[in-house]
TrEMBL record:
Residues 72-386 form the Glycosyl-hydrolase family 116 N-terminal domain. It comes from the Bacteria. It comes from Chitinophaga niastensis. This is Uncharacterized protein (DUF608 family). GO terms for biological process: carbohydrate metabolic process. Residues 494-770 form the Glycosyl-hydrolase family 116 catalytic region domain. One of its GO terms (molecular function) is hydrolase activity, hydrolyzing O-glycosyl compounds.
Length: 886
């Protein structure tokens, strides 16, 4: 959270103290969706609570309920810019021109004008899109339309919200389905939109392309002729091209398997080398995967008529920059009664000139493989069967689960942040990210360490970042890790600890121990750095250092102490794996002392606190006796990587229950009315968990009364909420975990704002990817690739459980029915030797891989059965492993 965002809290937040009243507008209301009622202003009853556990159905947003206007599902490749799929199936936003702007729509909006006498301005990084969600940002004209002929009738309809009586949007990231509904027509029309998304395959998931696949079924009794036309405006060099020097060019392209139009810009005369270096220089391509398509390099203006669907083929059109130049591609099919046709279109882009000041690396990664947007289309078309099959296979695998459908959506969809301008991949292969779109640079360690999704879905990206950046570019001689890479001169203590834990996760998500062995000397230095911050040798970190709440806190702070204990414990485990017994013992000493002292000195009988510095006391900002959302975050992290307890269970659960008692609000309105200064990430009428509360009702609970950071304590930030939900799930507090996750899900209902954009410091905030951690703990998933180990301990539906899993080299589905356990591999490979499941009273274990019995031994301990195969085995996609425990 960089310095710039502080201006909001300094200049706005503190001046709002006393300005609030209970007259804050209530924006929440109960809205019916397909599964239940949104929890807004009412206390959940037993029926509502039970509904949280129901499998339910896909969330489907409807035009008739005014739920389409804010939807913006990122539907381009990961790290390729941002292209949104709208609720009506049109593409919008188009942040692909390397503007590096802050927020999806840089703007200021007025907040609480009726209370504050004119209101305060809230910028994109402070929640502007939470108060006033963006919509209809269309820097270029793009769309599709249908011409349908049956009998003596011909109708023409654009595929947009205004043209259909009903449209439904199925929110199944990474592939969405849109239904265009008109009972008067003899057809059923469905559009599926996606960019290839294949876990473990970051290259094919990082293609600058959007695919729109239309299916039309003839439900009538006579043949119909359906023509679908797509169009795309040439807006290449949208900022830098001038009418005096440049001109737009659309050129027809006819390749094997596809036809389309390439949209470019060129200089009229002279040298073009400087122009070709501009950030927005590049090209676009519109295509149909058909050899029978009709292309037009220019589209006539005006209302659509039959003539637009019969444009003659033109090879090239050149126009001035001030003239509109739009390409078209049209397909035509005759459809017999009862039959269905499918037409696949694609739009690709190529803007390779990505650059950040003072950063080691520039240019977009996709430019290594492709020369232009047309080359992207050729690659996608040539590999379309595989790319679409594997993408759809992942979608089907993810949502084919026994866990609630809404839960599967919310815990996964935040990985769409990778397909926005929050994240980038340089030509060198380096992963680089903001905290949120265009805000707070440097792949910040103290924010990104919360984001569990990337390391589980695309582990190679995280491994490379740990090695190239955290243990490379950012590593100091004493083992400290600069928390923003080149953009910073200091470590952050929470980011340091979280990075060591991520290193352990990245090791676990590897096929072998090469990553750990290669990087161990620097990993050891980074872990020793944490130990060195314990000035008095009691195992509790007490060196003042920056943390994610943008301050340097003094004293011994439970959430930082616990996080450091977890990190050093991870260091000990890695040390044992590389046979560095001496360092493992050093780590063990720190962990043992830290745990003992944390539990005895920082637990107040109900929750964990911040013990002030003995000299400075409470003269500086801190959480002190308040109930802080991250107080047992170290234990939460430990569960993410399958570590044993680092904090006593009874005390930890007591702390979580205190958070539920004091910090969770079924309606945040009354609280924010009396605790002003925070940013608007949850509004009156909405539920959420407040960052810090003051159960002891101290006058100055945070030590000071006028620090600008005080505003943070009164906010609801989804990344922290997801972290707590993940921890509650692991500790058996499933009601609370589901309720908190649902509160976030409901705050982002499409009636109110974009479901795919969880906001903190700007749009598509990285910390929100902590939501995947709640899925991990719901499955009780543990994995260690180099050891060939996998385990499951479902938190709910244990007698009939089904969920996806992702490992270092493959992914598939795990099912558990009583004593029967099955791992069905759908993609890649999986090497195993040890498996662990919940079970008591086991007498016999049988392991079968594709009808072949495997010799194995087992032992039962603490309610779990651990199975050891006599020899390591490797299964590949299409294979299944069946275990029966009786």
């Amino acid at each position: 959270m960089a310095i710039e965002r502080r201006k909001f809290l300094r200049n706005v937040g503190l001046t709002m103290a006393g300005a609030f009243s209970v007259r804050l507008p209530v924006v929440g209301r109960a809205i019916a969706d397909n599964n239940s009622w949104l929890m807004t202003t009412k206390q959940p009853d037993a029926a509502w609570m039970a509904s949280l556990y129901e499998r339910g159905k896909v969330t489907t947003y409807l035009k008739s309920k005014n739920e389409l206007q804010y939807i913006g599902m990122p539907v381009g490749g990961i790290q390729c810019g941002t292209v949104y799929l709208g609720g009506d199936g049109r593409l919008w936003l188009w942040d692909i021109f390397n503007k590096n702007q802050e927020g999806i729509e840089p703007k200021e909006v007025t907040w609480n004008a009726d209370v504050l006498g004119g209101g305060k301005k809230v910028r994109s990084r402070d929640g502007a899109c939470y108060i006033a969600p963006s919509k209809n940002i269309r820097p270029l004209d793009q769309g599709f339309a249908l011409q349908l002929t049956y009998g003596d009738k011909t109708i023409i309809r654009k595929f947009d919200e205004a043209s259909w009586p009903e449209i439904s949007f199925e929110a199944t990231y990474p592939m969405a389905t849109v239904h265009y509904i008109d009972p008067a027509l003899p057809v059923e029309i469905t559009m599926e939109a996606f960019s290839p998304f294949i876990p473990l395959n970051e290259d094919d998931s990082g293609l600058p392309v959007t695919i729109l696949s239309y299916k039309i079924k003839n439900t009538g009794t006579v043949p119909v002729t359906a023509a679908i036309m797509g169009w795309l405006e040439n807006k290449v060099a949208i900022e830098s091209a001038t009418d005096a020097l440049h001109e737009r060019v659309n050129t027809a392209v006819n390749e094997k398997g596809w036809q389309g139009v390439s949209a470019t810009v060129r200089v009229k005369t002279g040298d073009s080398s400087d122009f070709e270096k501009k950030a927005d220089y590049g090209n676009l391509c519109l295509a149909a995967f058909s050899n029978k398509a009709t292309v037009g390099t220019i589209m006539a203006e005006g209302e659509l008529t039959a003539a637009h669907f019969k444009l003659p083929v033109s090879k090239q059109t050149v126009r001035g920059i001030k003239e509109k130049l739009t390409a078209t591609v049209t397909t035509r099919n005759n459809i017999l009664p009862g039959k269905t046709i499918r037409t696949d279109f694609a739009i690709s882009w190529y803007f390779p000139n990505l650059h950040f000041k003072d950063i080691q690396g520039e240019g977009r990664y996709y430019a290594n493989k492709f020369a232009d947007a047309a080359a992207v289309i050729s690659y996608v078309q040539q590999n379309y069967v595989r790319l679409s099959h594997e993408s759809r296979l992942w979608k089907d695998t993810w949502y084919d689960a026994s866990l609630p459908w809404w839960f599967m959506e919310r815990t996964f969809l935040n990985i769409s942040t990778l397909a926005t301008t929050t994240t980038h991949r340089f030509r060198s292969g380096r992963f680089y990210a903001w905290e949120g779109v265009g805000a707070c640079e440097g792949t910040c360690t103290h924010v990104w360490q919360y984001a569990q999704a990337v390391g589980r879905i695309f582990p190679a990206l995280e491994r490379d970042t740990r090695q190239r950046v955290d243990l490379g570019i950012a590593l100091l001689p004493d083992g400290g890790i600069l928390f923003r890479g080149e953009a910073e001169k200091r470590p952050a203590i929470d980011g340091q600890a979280g990075t060591v834990l991520r290193i352990y996760r990245e090791h676990q998500m590897s096929r072998d121990a090469a990553f750990l062995q290669q990087n161990w000397p620097n990993i050891k230095k980074a872990t020793q750095f944490i130990i060195n911050q314990d000035r008095n040798g009691d195992g509790m970190e007490d060196t003042p250092m920056e943390n994610t709440l943008d301050a340097v806190w003094d004293g011994e702070i439970a959430w930082i102490v616990g996080l450091c204990i977890a990190a050093v414990q991870a260091g000990a485990l890695m040390a044992m794996e590389v046979n560095d017994t001496a360092f493992a013992n050093v780590c063990k000493t720190y962990v043992d002392k830290g745990r003992k002292n944390m539990e005895s000195q920082l637990f107040n009988g109900e929750y964990f606190i911040h013990q002030p510095d003995k000299v400075k006391g409470r003269s500086v900002i801190g959480s002190y006796n308040t109930c802080h959302i991250d107080q047992v975050y170290g234990q939460s992290w430990a569960f993410q990587v399958g570590m044993d307890r680092i904090i006593d269970k009874e005390k930890t659960v007591s702390a979580l229950r205190a958070l539920w008692k004091y910090n969770y609000m079924k309606d945040v309105g009354p609280y924010v009315a009396t605790h002003p200064g925070g940013r608007p990430y949850a509004l009156p009428g909405e539920a959420g968990m407040i960052m810090n509360t003051n159960p002891r009702k101290e006058e100055f609970p945070f030590g000071v009364k006028d620090a600008w950071q005080l505003g943070y304590f009164n906010e609801c930030m989804t990344g922290f909420e997801h972290q707590v939900a993940a921890h509650m799930m692991a500790e058996g507090m499933t009601d609370e975990a589901l309720t908190l996750t649902r509160a976030v899900h409901d705050r982002y209902h499409a009636f109110k704002r974009n479901p795919f954009n969880e906001i903190e410091c700007s749009d598509h905030y990285a910390r929100a990817m902590a939501s995947y951690g709640t899925f991990v703990t719901a499955c009780g998933f543990e994995y260690h690739g180099p050891k060939g180990y996998i385990g499951f301990a479902p938190a709910m539906n244990k007698e009939n459980f089904k969920a996806p899993f992702v490992t270092a080299e493959g992914w598939g589905t795990y099912t558990q029915q009583g004593g029967s356990h099955t791992l069905q591999l759908k993609y890649g490979a999986l090497s195993l030797q040890t498996l662990r499941f919940q079970k008591t009273g086991a007498k016999q274990v049988t392991v079968i891989i594709d009808h072949k019995k495997m010799p194995a031994s087992f032992k039962e301990e603490n309610g779990f059965v651990t199975i050891q195969l006599d020899t390591a085995t490797r299964i590949v996609a299409g294979n299944s492993l069946h275990i029966t425990i009786v």
